[in-house]
């Protein structure tokens, strides 16, 4: 993609440009926002670094890449919440919008490079603006481990034979002073490592500890800046240990061909797709003989009659479930069926006096995935204006629904709802960005939910830096067991990365969907691999970490080993076979998670009953929630169990095989989301006609 590099002049914005070029994108121009008053170095902006901006006016002397400028006034950070919505036309972010809009029209750019490492404040704003302008965000430094990242910048020249010279022009941290001004990254790096150990300061200066200006970069093809002198313009007595300077430089001419830059940057360090622990799991799984002890599955190939069930609404605690919304007239065209579904949802929201903003997560079932774009367009239309954190979403393809789509939603009943979570739209090495109008994770910041019980969007085996499937569907005829293992490991890795970023580790209920499109492997083999990897990641002592593998390019939050999960988490898994998944993915993983497993199981119960009872979770309001996953061999067994459940406030998602349902009473429960599937399995890989995720309040 053709992209503009948002540059402050500092190391991070420059370094992200280099990674964007490495990943096949084409640098078209640079863009800088600077103070309206050119004599002013500090803009007091919440968003933009402007210290050293005067040097960027000389960029035309050192690079043939054009640079555009936009002047902004001081104190225009008006919307300062972590998430951003355009409520003020004079906010500095609206100036960024106008600036990028003009650049898009002039240069026909498709993407924007931004050097954010950990700042969600900065990332959210750039992504919001780019979303309005239909531009992609390139943020390859996002969530990188700062020690590794700083080391890579320091070693850049030796790795690539290309210059990367950045000088310290401002310090604002304990242990740093005016003597550090003008130092290179290589000179300041040992000191930052020491200060990090002593005071937990950010090694890369992401917390504002220091700011830099780049004097030489691979994108400088006409010359570079040579430092002549330093003028300190602040001192400690006046500015509380904040020091800054202006650099006196001269331009040294030099000729370089920018067309050769992509090849040269092949040697730039970047994170591996899988870290040591995931490579160890892949290696270990490849050594398992999955042809042993495979049970014959009861897989029906007969055409079945599609059952009817109605939309229902149920309340559990402070959460409302609106389930099984289907088109009322199946003879209508696709857009009309979509309109009927969203009209029904709108009517329920209106009857309950609930805003769309209170919706936390959705599950969308599509009969034919070739209609995804059209259905998604209607979905986007309905959820437009919902704010910075749209609902998380699981999207699946199933021919076993009557209409063209089926929708279920979960929402908070708190009309003053504050939400938190992750809605990352930038392309990075970290994790797949959202490929639809949904958040990766969302939870209600409601009273009683300090444990952050929340909803994960479905994760598929996408390579984050390219947003392509690890195994292309074009090669589906050659798809083998090793391909499947790689897909499962990457999907688990993507799911785990999200949880670690959020500092949330506990699975309350998990669903893994397997696509029927990949027919070169037996379903038995697929199930065996999934249950094996699920088992070892829930029981880390079963993993043999290969210590010969070196993790040298990590992420900020990444742990070398897996957390010790409570064994109770292991049981709350459904493995479901469906017709299709988004983007022709082979597997999708989603679920409900929480920060801490403050769970208890009655010690007087025998072990078997403990497994059956699931996980008890106590909220801050001393409500006892129970999350469990249960399997049933017959409809009568299911109906008998449900009669007992009616004494509790509960909600369930039921995965069932159409041809195995023998009693119409199965579809008469007001608390259930119904999902007809090809096959369903529990965490042991045992096939069952009916498998259910159940959530209830124990009274």
UniProtKB/TrEMBL annotation:
It catalyses: diphthine-[translation elongation factor 2] + NH4(+) + ATP = diphthamide-[translation elongation factor 2] + AMP + diphosphate + H(+). Residues 1-223 form the Diphthamide synthase domain. Its EC number is 6.3.1.14. Signal peptide: none annotated. It comes from the Eukaryota. One of its GO terms (molecular function) is diphthine-ammonia ligase activity. Coiled coil: none annotated. It holds the Pfam family Ribonuc_L-PSP. One of its GO terms (biological process) is protein histidyl modification to diphthamide. NCBIfam families: MJ0570_dom. This is Diphthine--ammonia ligase.
């Amino acid at each position: 993609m053709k992209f503009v590099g948002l540059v402050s002049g500092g190391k991070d914005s420059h370094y992200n440009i280099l990674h964007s070029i490495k990943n096949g994108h084409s640098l078209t121009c640079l863009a800088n926002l600077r103070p309206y008053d050119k004599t002013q170095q500090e803009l007091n902006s919440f968003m933009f670094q402007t210290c050293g901006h005067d040097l960027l006016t000389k960029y035309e002397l050192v690079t043939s890449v054009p640079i555009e400028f936009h002047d902004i006034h001081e104190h225009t950070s008006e919307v300062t919440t972590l998430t951003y919505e355009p409520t003020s036309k004079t906010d500095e972010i609206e100036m960024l919008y106008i600036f990028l809009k003009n650049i898009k029209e002039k240069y026909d750019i498709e993407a924007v490079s931004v050097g954010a490492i950990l700042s969600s404040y900065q990332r959210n704003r750039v992504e919001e603006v780019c979303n309005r302008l239909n531009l992609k965000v390139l943020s390859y430094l996002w969530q990188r481990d700062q020690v590794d990242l700083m080391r890579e910048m320091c070693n850049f020249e030796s790795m690539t034979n290309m210059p990367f010279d950045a000088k310290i022009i401002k310090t604002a941290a304990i242990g740093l002073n005016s003597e550090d001004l003008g130092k290179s990254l290589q000179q300041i790096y040992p000191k930052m490592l020491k200060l990090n150990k002593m005071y937990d300061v950010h090694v890369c200066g992401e917390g504002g500890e220091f700011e830099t200006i780049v004097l030489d970069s691979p994108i400088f093809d006409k010359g570079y800046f040579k430092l002549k002198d330093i003028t300190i313009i602040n001192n400690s007595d006046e500015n509380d240990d904040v020091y800054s300077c202006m650099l006196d430089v001269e331009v040294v001419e030099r000729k370089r061909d920018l067309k050769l830059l992509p090849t040269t940057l092949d040697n730039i360090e970047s994170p591996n797709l899988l870290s040591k622990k995931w490579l160890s799991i892949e290696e270990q799984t490849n050594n398992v003989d999955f042809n042993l002890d495979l049970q014959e599955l009861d897989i029906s190939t007969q055409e079945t009659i599609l059952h009817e069930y109605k939309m229902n609404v149920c309340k559990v605690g402070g959460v409302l479930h609106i389930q099984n919304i289907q088109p009322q007239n199946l003879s209508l065209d696709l857009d009309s069926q979509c309109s009927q579904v969203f009209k029904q949802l709108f009517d329920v929201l209106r009857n309950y006096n609930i805003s769309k903003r209170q919706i936390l997560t959705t599950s969308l079932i599509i009969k034919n995935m070739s209609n995804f774009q059209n259905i998604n367009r209607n979905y986007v239309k309905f959820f437009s204006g919902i704010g910075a954190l749209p609902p998380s979403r699981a999207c699946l393809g199933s021919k076993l629904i009557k209409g063209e789509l089926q929708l279920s939603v979960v929402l908070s009943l708190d009309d003053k709802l504050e939400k938190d979570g992750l809605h990352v739209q930038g392309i990075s090495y970290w994790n797949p960005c959202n490929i639809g109008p949904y958040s990766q994770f969302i939870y209600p910041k409601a009273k009683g939910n300090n444990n952050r019980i929340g909803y994960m969007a479905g994760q598929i085996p996408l390579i984050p830096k390219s947003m392509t499937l690890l195994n292309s569907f074009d090669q589906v005829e050659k798809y083998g067991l090793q391909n499947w293992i790689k897909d499962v490991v990457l999907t688990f890795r993507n799911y785990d990365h999200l949880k670690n970023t959020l500092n949330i580790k506990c699975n309350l209920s998990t669903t893994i969907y397997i696509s029927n499109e990949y027919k070169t492997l037996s379903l038995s083999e697929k199930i065996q691999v999934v249950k094996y990897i699920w088992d070892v990641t829930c029981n880390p002592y079963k993993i043999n970490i290969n210590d010969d593998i070196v993790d040298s390019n990590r992420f900020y939050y990444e742990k070398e080993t897996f957390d010790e999960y409570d064994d109770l988490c292991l049981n709350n898994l459904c493995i479901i076979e469906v017709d299709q998944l988004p983007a022709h993915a082979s597997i999708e993983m989603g679920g409900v998670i929480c920060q801490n497993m403050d769970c208890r199981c009655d010690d007087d119960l025998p072990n078997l009953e403990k497994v059956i009872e699931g996980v008890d979770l106590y909220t801050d309001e001393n409500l006892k929630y129970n999350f469990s996953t249960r399997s049933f061999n017959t409809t009568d067994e299911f109906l008998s169990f449900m009669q007992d459940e009616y004494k509790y406030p509960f909600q369930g998602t039921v995965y069932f095989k159409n041809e195995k349902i023998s009693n119409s009473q199965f579809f008469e429960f007001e608390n259930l989301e119904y999902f007809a599937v090809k096959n369903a399995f529990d965490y042991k890989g045992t096939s069952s006609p009916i498998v259910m995720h159940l959530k209830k309040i124990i009274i």
